[in-house]
Design brief:
alpha+beta, Endonuclease III, domain 1, Nucleoside Triphosphate Pyrophosphohydrolase, 2 domains, eight-stranded mixed beta sheet, binds iron/sulfur cluster
């Protein structure tokens, strides 16, 4: 007989009695303790989708005000599709991961053009939209459309790994497949979206990354990690995550009360966003101000310049980089020639209105306050 995918996980997946007790205990706990969130209670797939995309890589507390503002301005998929990307990006500014908002906007246009403004109602069609992976498609289909699809995100990876006592890295192929299988097997036939939300809340409120609250956990008696006392070692840390130090320089050039800005082309990570001309130093550059910086500035903007002084330093982290951003004031020394990026001279009012990445917004805030200092984010 051919081996089924279940056979690979037979030693791991709990039996039906365990699953029934888990479902009962979890739902009873959720009834009393579930979080009250702005996007809870809705079955509008558009709103579930927006909330899920916003929640990637960030916390519910950080998303709350963004979600409310976004839904007020773009209450449905048609409104979003008809809006300029620039305006949509402005409503996203500060949430980071700007590719997500571009894909959200692209997907809204696909829904309008190919699905007659109606959010698709099959898992495969949802999964085919730009920026939607297995987790997000499962969340939308289960929460908004009452379809039986599992979810697996940071909270449930941790929860399931501990419940199973799985001490290896859950990001590895076997671990990832095992936890998806666990998520699928424990999902009840009725109200799967409700159950998925309960799982996320238990992971977020009780089975926390550090010091899980096992003594008040409703599934304590079912948990392998708690039984063995290994909950603080599970899930295994991803040892691959190390930060690289990096230095960048942003140049602030003022002329006639306007500031020189560039717009990133659509093909790059921050496509569509504006920024101050920025140079990424390579490890051979010992000085912040050097010939490579000036050449890079000319290539990007078409202008030659001289650096006047450093006006602030911003320290921040992006993906695997710990970045020291040196912000310098510069003056133009020649006429514009051909440039790689589009350039704009913007007033303070325009700077306040355009979508920017987080560090560019800090520079603008500093310009608007005319206050320069060291900032650490
Ligand atoms: Fe997490 Fe502890 Fe509950 Fe196990 S008993 S699921 S480790 S909080």
């Amino acid at each position: 007989m051919p081996k089924s995918s279940d056979d690979n996980f037979r030693d791991w997946i709990p039996d039906p009695k365990w699953i029934r007790t888990f479902q009962k205990n979890l739902l009873a706990w959720y009834h009393e303790n579930g979080r009250s969130l702005a996007w809870r209670g809705t079955t509008d797939p558009y709103k579930v989708w927006v909330s899920e995309i916003m929640l990637q890589q960030t916390t519910t507390a950080a998303v709350d005000s963004y979600y409310r503002r976004f839904i007020k301005r773009f209450p449905d998929v048609k409104t979003l599709a008809e809006a300029e990307l620039t305006e949509v990006q402005r409503y996203w500014e500060g949430l980071g991961y700007y590719r997500r908002v571009k894909q959200l906007h692209q997907a809204s246009i696909v829904i309008v053009n190919e699905h007659n403004d109606i959010f698709p109602d099959t898992f495969d069609a949802v999964l085919a939209l730009p920026g939607i992976g297995r987790y997000t498609a499962g969340a939308i289909c289960s929460i908004a459309q009452n379809q039986r699809y599992p979810i697996l995100e940071a909270n449930t990876i941790r929860l399931h790994a501990r419940l199973l006592g799985y001490s290896d890295d859950p990001a590895k192929s076997f671990g990832n497949k095992l936890l998806w299988k666990m998520a699928e097997k424990i999902l009840p036939e009725t109200r799967p979206g409700h159950f998925n939300q309960a799982l996320m809340d238990l992971g977020s409120l009780v089975c926390t990354p550090k010091t899980p609250k096992c003594s008040i956990c409703p599934v304590f008696i079912l948990c392998q990690a708690a039984c063995r006392g290994t909950q603080n070692q599970i899930p295994a840390l991803n040892k691959g995550k190390t930060f690289e130090e990096r230095t960048e320089v942003a140049l602030v050039v003022e002329k006639n009360k306007k500031y020189l800005m560039i717009q990133y082309p659509e093909s790059v990570r921050w496509g569509g966003l504006w920024d101050f001309p920025r140079h990424v130093a390579d490890s051979s550059e010992k000085l912040i101000v050097n010939q490579k910086l000036l050449e890079d500035f000319k290539r990007i903007t078409g202008y030659s310049c001289s650096i006047q002084k450093q006006i602030m330093t911003i320290r921040h982290a992006v993906t695997k980089f710990k970045i020291k951003l040196c912000v310098c004031q510069a003056e133009l020394t020649g006429q514009k020639t051909v440039s790689e990026y589009r350039t704009y001279w913007m007033s303070k009012k325009e700077l306040a209105e355009i979508p920017l990445n987080t560090t560019a917004r800090k520079i603008v805030n500093s310009i608007l306050c005319e206050h320069h200092s060291d900032i650490q984010s």
